[in-house]
Design brief:
The protein is of the alpha/beta class and 409 residues long. The protein contains twelve helices and 16 strands. The chain starts with a helix and ends in a 34-residue tail after the last helix. It binds zinc ion (ZN). The site of zinc ion (ZN) has 6 residues, from loops.
């Protein structure tokens, strides 16, 4: 019975955290209305969040003539680190519970050598910990453009030439961080979760437009992983059965050989052209493509036209198969959205461009690293003892003077 009560309290704390996260500064009454809990139940729960340094005061509001103190999530209180791995470079993103990105860093790296890549990922992790001091760290999640086995912490990614690489063990050994704070997942899955976090539509598909093409599928608000954790590898749908190009998976005819970034850039320009230069950021390479399209370059326009047609074919398959409310195009599909024209409506499915850029997987990974706290705020230790009138725990109609700001400096 006691355990059940504890479980309910943790769930209610998580509910308040999510309500504050979704709706911004709220008074106790607004929080009660928004969460469905009673005002009496909210008061001690808010005190608990406050003692953990997760919330702070945010001014007052006046409702029905009575001032009410507003409470919000404390920016920078708890942070998650997302790492993303791509052929030729790595990225790091630090996000807090409010969704604010505190750090985004990118570094060139020969990712085809897994041990070297893990060394650099450990460097990025240490630098992120140093550069955002004063935060509680929930963990690190690594986004992989391939298959990630979360149970074993390993990843296999043909485009990186990674096979059963022990990502979690490797990072734990290099950083000294505990294994239960480290995780690895597929980047399209993580990007889909990041998109869903911004717009919690129940049925959503995120389509990554990078060297590889993969889908993160959310159905009824839940990420679809499949029996073997391989759901969403749509880049390997055989949509081009007469195609002559071999895919990274070893087969021919994969959708990725038509709409993957490499296929697109090959169609745009010869291999010695600047758009193929891996030292340039994807965004810069897309700017070059865009410039040529605007000047009417025939080869670029033809590549855009053919890629858009192949993209539309695959999108119609996804819309028919999965019946999502929304398909979000990521990566270079989003960067060239004005030129890669695909039908915006597939029945009742809307097709939109992501605003998260090429680092959507890294942003989703940082968010995933925060999941531990979002699911159970009590994993953050209590920092202060309850006081008579301190911080956000005090009820809004408490008439005593202003509270100290606590450790928010
Ligand atoms: Zn393939």
């Amino acid at each position: 019975m006691q355990a059940q009560t504890e479980g309910r309290r943790e769930a209610n704390l998580a509910l308040l955290l999510r309500t504050l996260r979704a709706r911004g500064p709220l008074s106790r009454s607004q929080l009660a209305a928004g969460s469905g809990l009673s005002k009496t139940a909210v008061t001690p729960l808010l005190a608990s969040l406050d003692q953990r340094g997760l919330t702070e005061r945010a001014g007052t509001t006046t409702t029905q003539g009575r001032p009410g103190r507003l409470v919000r999530l404390r920016p920078g209180a708890v942070c998650g680190i997302g790492l993303d791995v791509h052929p030729g470079h790595l990225g790091a993103t630090v996000t807090d519970l409010t969704g604010e990105v505190h750090l985004r860093r990118k570094t060139a790296c020969d990712t085809s050598a897994p041990e070297h890549a893990l060394d650099r990922l450990a460097d990025l992790t240490r630098r992120a910990l140093d550069d955002v001091p004063g935060a509680d760290w929930t963990g690190v999640t690594v986004a992989i453009p391939g298959r990630a086995d979360r149970a074993t912490g390993t990843a296999t990614a043909p485009r990186l030439r990674w096979r059963e690489v022990s990502v979690v063990d490797g990072l734990a050994a290099r950083t000294g961080l505990p294994i239960d704070r480290l995780d690895v997942d597929n980047e399209a899955n993580l990007a889909a979760c990041a998109e869903h976090d911004g717009d919690p539509v129940g049925h959503l598909v995120y389509l990554s437009g990078d060297h590889g093409v993969a889908a993160g599928v959310i159905a009824d608000g839940v990420l679809v992983r499949g029996a073997d954790n391989h759901a969403g590898e749509v880049g390997h749908l055989a949509l081009d059965p007469l195609g002559s190009t071999y895919c990274a998976c070893g087969r021919r005819g994969c959708w990725e050989t038509q709409v993957g970034l490499d296929a697109f850039l090959d169609a745009c320009a010869p291999r010695d052209d600047r758009v193929h230069d891996p030292r340039l950021a994807q965004g810069e390479r897309m700017s070059i493509v865009r410039g040529r399209a605007e000047r009417g370059d025939a080869r670029t326009l033809d590549a855009l036209h053919r890629t858009a047609a192949a993209l539309a074919s695959g999108i119609s398959v996804l819309a028919t198969l999965l019946n999502p409310r929304k398909i979000v195009l990521g990566g270079y599909f989003a960067a060239l959205q004005d030129w890669l024209v695909v039908p915006q409506d597939q029945g009742r499915t809307r097709v939109t461009a992501s605003t998260l850029g090429f680092s959507a997987g890294g942003k989703g990974a940082a968010l995933a690293a925060l999941r531990r706290v979002l699911d159970d705020p009590t994993v953050v230790p209590v920092k202060s003892r309850p006081a008579d009138d301190r911080g956000s725990g005090a009820p809004e109609d408490d008439r005593t003077g202003s509270a100290p700001e606590g450790a928010s400096a």
